[in-house]
TrEMBL record:
Cofactor list: Mg(2+)
InterPro entries in the record: Ac/propionate_kinase, Aliphatic_acid_kin_short-chain, Aliphatic_acid_kinase_CS, ATPase_NBD
Region called Disordered, residue ranges: 58-89
GO BP terms: acetate metabolic process; acetyl-CoA biosynthetic process
Residue positions binding ATP: K16
Top-level lineage group: Eukaryota
Protein name: Probable acetate kinase
Record's keyword terms, sorted: ATP-binding, Kinase, Magnesium, Metal-binding, Nucleotide-binding, Transferase
UniProt similarity note: Belongs to the acetokinase family.
Binding site residues for substrate: R118
Length: 422
């Protein structure tokens, strides 16, 4: 029976996991085939929703004792699920729930040979690595640079050691994709000795997503693509990352559900009335730098302006509610600002503007508004293409593409390609 690869994507508000079978059919360029996909969304709210969908019955010889009394037919036909699960309160409990549901549906988790973990911040790591105790400590030390991501992802690795002891855990760092960014773009204009010693530079994230988009758009068109967008923006030249909107941490760049996006760095000292007069004692009392970092990461963004973290709600209420209109307009303004910036850096010759990830894929309204505002530099959406059924990569107008990105698939693909290495 083929081995299974589990790919876990710990996002800031979600946990997405796909189960892949290693593919023997060499015409499949991914090298793996999805057999089940699960998503736990709204993890930052009190009502996480869990879903599980099987693409193929999990051929299995499970001997899970707790399932022994179950009706054979019930095990043989896995049921798709979608439900609110109040017991899930973090990424780790979402993972445990997922494994439990896999077993209940008759999948033999002993077949899982590799688990791919998306780790957002890899610091100085230059390639994927097997999770050892040493690696866990190094990744843990980077947690303050990706407070919504690294810690939750590590809790999954720990759960794997306990619950899937026969499997090998491998980390895929978001930041690795961006090591090609030229030094003058990844550097901040600060003392360079301190910058080097403390690793203070722009890292960039969502690397597996960009890697997938890059691969699929090239497969689709046979061309090298050079202009990308998702819930952060990235610019590619010659298939490599050249610039990106996130920085030392994922806070920089576009605003998000609870994140402010880029602000004047001095804003943190002026956010509270007393913070503008900081001296040593006031700094201690305010727990600087933790307090502002928490405010900007967890209590800002759309949630702070509108009360919702859902961009779909902002979209639908933007014509009737001033706060929603403000959140929408800020977002559109920052997006087109980055597009203009990258357009110039590409010498006015981008191959395409690619919309991807949840907002880029699902929000036709956002695509229409953004593209209308950048029509002056040669982009256009064709309404007829917008209403057509979307494949993984589709043209939706002049120089505009939508790509259904899949970070889990990209990690599993890279794992399958280098299996002999692991
Ligand atoms: N129909 C939709 N239209 C626009 N945005 C959406 C829609 N559905 C979900 N979203 C946005 O996608 C975000 C979730 O993105 P996702 O990649 O699943 O999670 P994470 O925040 O963990 O990266 C939510 O914050 C929500 O604002
Ligand atoms: C880096 C980052 O913000 O990731 P996500 O959008 O998945 O939370
Ligand atoms: Mg995400």
């Amino acid at each position: 029976m083929p081995q299974l690869i589990l790919s876990a994507n710990s996002g800031s508000s979600s946990l997405k996991i796909t189960v892949f079978e290693i593919e023997s059919d060499t015409s499949n360029t991914d090298g793996v085939k999805a057999i089940a996909v699960s998503s736990t969304s709204n993890l930052s709210s009190s009502k996480p929703t869990f879903s599980l969908k099987f693409f193929a019955p999990p051929a299995s010889d499970t001997s899970d004792a707790s399932d022994a009394s179950k009706d054979k037919d019930e095990k043989a036909t896995p049921k798709d699920e979608k439900e609110e699960v109040p017991d899930i309160n973090d990424h780790k409990s979402a993972f445990e729930h997922f494994l439990d549901r896999l077993k209940k549906n008759g999948l033999d988790v002993g077949r899982i040979s590799h688990v791919c973990h998306r780790i957002v911040h890899g610091g100085r790591y230059q390639k994927p690595t097997e999770i050892s105790e040493d690696a866990m400590h190094r990744i843990e030390a980077l947690s303050s640079l990706a407070p919504l991501h690294n810690g939750p992802a590590l809790s999954l690795s720990e759960a794997c050691f306990a619950l899937l002891p026969e499997s090998q855990s491998i980390t895929y760092f978001d930041s690795v994709f961006h090591i090609s960014i030229p030094q003058h773009i990844s550097s901040y204009a600060i003392d360079q000795k301190t910058a080097y010693e403390k690793g203070l530079k722009r890292y960039g994230f969502h690397g597996s997503s960009y890697s997938f988009i890059n691969r699929k758009v090239a497969e689709f068109s046979g061309k090298v693509w050079s202009f990308l967008q998702r819930d952060d923006l990235n610019m590619l030249t010659m298939e490599k990352s050249y610039d990106t909107t996130m920085g030392l941490t994922p806070l920089d760049g576009l605003p998000g559900a609870t994140r402010s996006g880029g602000v004047d760095p001095s804003l943190i000292f002026h956010y509270t009335s007393s913070a503008g007069r900081l001296d040593q004692t006031a700094t201690k009392d305010l727990h600087v730098p933790e307090a502002p970092e928490h405010i900007l990461n967890s209590n800002s963004g759309w949630k702070s302006i509108t009360g919702t973290t859902n961009f779909g709600t902002i979209t639908s209420k933007r014509h009737s509610s001033p706060p929603h209109a403000l959140a929408w307009n800020i977002f559109v303004d920052r997006v087109i600002g980055y597009i203009g910036n990258y357009y110039v850096k590409l010498g006015g010759r981008p191959d395409a503007l690619v919309f991807a990830d949840v907002i880029g894929e699902k929000s036709a309204d956002l695509r229409a508004e953004v593209v209308k505002k950048v029509e002056c530099i040669g982009f256009e959406v064709d309404e007829r293409n917008e209403s057509a059924g979307l494949g993984v990569v589709e043209w939706i107008g002049k120089n505009v593409i939508v790509c259904q990105t899949d970070e889990q698939l990209e990690m599993a693909h890279q794992c399958a390609v280098s299996l002999q290495h692991w």
